[in-house]
Structure formats: structure tokens, C-alpha cells
TrEMBL record:
This is HemY protein. It comes from the Bacteria. TPR repeats lie at residues 77-110. PROSITE patterns: TPR. Keywords: Repeat, TPR repeat.
Amino acid sequence: MENQSRKTRHQVALQVAMAEHLIECDDHDTAQQIIIDGLKRQYDDRLLLPIPRLKTNNPEQLEKVLRQQIKNVGDRPLLWSTLGQSLMKHGEWQEASLAFRAALKQRPDAYDYAWLADALDRLHKPEEAAAMRRDGLMLTLQNNPPQ
């Protein structure tokens, strides 16, 4: 059994490396397919990392898989954040803002605050956007106290 999990871990590393390489070679659709196949086989955070760099013709397919993963493996901040970033790429501001809020509910993250603020700007909610930027800045300052 131990051998099997090592093999799976190795396989995920290979899938991620292949996806990264395909993105660099501008073959985003194949990269997306590798990531989707990998996620369907077994959830692994590492498979989410290349997703924000994907420029795919079919983001809906990927978003559907991410939502399915949220149902299967539960509320993971990285899943919600990745979904939000994907939704922002094609202007789904409302859905993206909900995804970032779901991520932030579980753990504060300066990037998610910034993306949420951008989505809120697009939704013409400047006051709320400013509040999110302030929260993100406060978080950054807390995590990096002056020397």
C-alpha cells in the first residue's frame, strides 16, 4: 500500500510538470485536460497550482470540475481561491466574489482579499472593495512586522 501512495504522489508530480510544460508551450487545452484527469483520479493541492495560468477555450469545464472537487473533498480555501481566479478570467465577477469570500471565510489571505477587491470594483462596489484592500493590507502588515 505504501508503494501505491508513493507511486500516486510521483504521478501527481509528473502531471503537474507536464501541465506546466504545456502551458509554457502554449498548449493550454491539453494542460487543462491533464489537470482535470488528475483531479478526477485523486484530489491533490499541487494540481491546482498551474490553473491560474491557464488560458483555455473551455474554462467552464474546469470550473465544473473545481466545484465537483469542493463537493467531494469539502471546503478547501485553495479550491475556492482557484475557482475565483478562473471565474475572473472571463468576467464572472459575482461568482468570483462568492468564491473568494468562501476562501477567506476559512483563512485570511492577502491575495484573496486583493482579488475579491478587484471583483467588487467590477461589480461597482467601491466602498466594499476599499474595505477588502484595507483588510488585505492589515493582514500583510501583521504577517510582516517592521524590523
